[in-house]
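Give me the 3D structure for TM2 domain-containing protein 3.
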Amino acid sequence: MAALWWRRALRGLCAAALFLSQLSVLSGRAGSLMTTKLSQPQSTLAKSLTSTSTSAPYFKASESTDIPPYVTNCPSNGLCSRLPPDCMTCNTNYSCIYGKPATFDCKVKPHVHCVDENNYQQENFTINMTCQFCWQLATSDYVCTNSTNCMTVSCPRQRYNATCTVRDHIHCLGNRVFPKMLYCNWTGGYKWSTALALSITLGGFGADRFYLGQWREGLGKLFSFGGLGIWTLIDVLLIGVGYVGPADGSLYI
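Predicted structure for TM2 domain-containing protein 3 (253 residues):
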């Protein structure tokens, strides 16, 4: 009986020890899980603090001090109404009548300083100009490129594609740089008076044709003695009225 009792008691102790060991293992896992969960926000906070502390310090970007290129063409402290068009920005007057004077509200561009008639600095002002587009201006109000590849003396007269730019003191609507078809009007340096003088005096020897660069006609006149004088008289008339010109197609000076 005693041996049986001791055996039961030993079994109970073993079961209790096994229960306590399992309980300790479970409590250890729970504690590690709690530690992990609690450490995660701390690590996140630490990372955020670290990233904030190691990031470059913030400096306010200084305003650009570069002067725009148009400022060089804008007179300082001059009358606002006389500024070049590149120095101002104007609102389009949609009620203006073509060909009639109109008033436009304008504002100076940044870095541009101007005054009114009383020498007070101002930014907003008005200008008066004719209501028309830039390409409708008179030929004296814009400058165009020249072409040396077209014939000025031809029938019909030849044209070329030119790029025109409005002069600085002229105000107009639309683009200030525009394409336009113009007549060939370049010159190669030949003088009309010289050609006419050669035709009258030495035309029988073809001097006028040689001067104008027309070598074949000059040789023809030279060996035919001016076509027995008939060709010479005809050339005097043709050069006199400007019908015969330089061989390169340019205009007389």
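The longest strand covers residues 101-108. Let me know if you want a second pass.
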